[in-house]
Amino acid sequence: MIQSNNIIKTIGEKMILRGMNLEIASGETVAIIGPNGAGKSTWLKITAGLLKPTEGSLLIDEEPLKKDKYELQQIIGYLGHQSFLYEHFSPVENLRFFAKLYHVKKPDKRIDDLIEEVGLTFFKYEPVRSFSRGMIQRLAIARAILHDPKILLLDEPHTGLDQQAVDILNKVILRLKKKGVTVVLVTHDFPQVIKTCDRVIILKNGRVKDDIPLEGQDVNWLYTHYERQAIHS
Questions:
Q1: 167-200 pLDDT tens trace
Q2: Which of 18, 92, 105, 154 could form a disulfide with 206 if both were Cys (CB 3.0 to 4.6 A apart)?
Q3: In terms of Cα–Cα distance, which of 205, 207, 209 is closest to 36?
């Protein structure tokens, strides 16, 4: 479903991605890990259609992802470091706004169900400006999956969440995984990688350093393998 073909990304005089080759199949849940500056978030933004590669191509279902490819962008949900929420709106008002942008049919029930799923039912009519960091992140997760995307791209989604919110997010990821949604997770949170992902990609210096299945592995193995591949090699 996602094909990254020799992607190079240069910003100014700095080369961030140095020939990123990667394939992610439909329905996979994949973690991308690596040191700061490895190019993880940059690649995710290119995959979301928010950045253009300097060289190479990004294909979704074998079609190039471009800004004018509205149909392709409709199947992608993206949660980055910004929530894209309007702080003077309530959760209901925010999600209604995005439902119109994505032409969601019968949005009211969908909105109520998502607000309940992310644990914000008691705050659904409160302005977002009064929310904690974790509550904003929960609502941003609801925004990212509101239009029922086939691909969900998450950049450090567990950051700033308390344990309850971490558990809620993991349940959302596992529900989508069961449904066949392709989930790509950029993270430093190795325990959550083990709990939710099928496969892990290690990036270093803008290239894929390793690509390994996670079945049967635990957190200690992942820490050890990561240190060997991304830090000491």
A1: 999 999 999 999 999 999 999 999 999 999 999 9
A2: 18
A3: 205
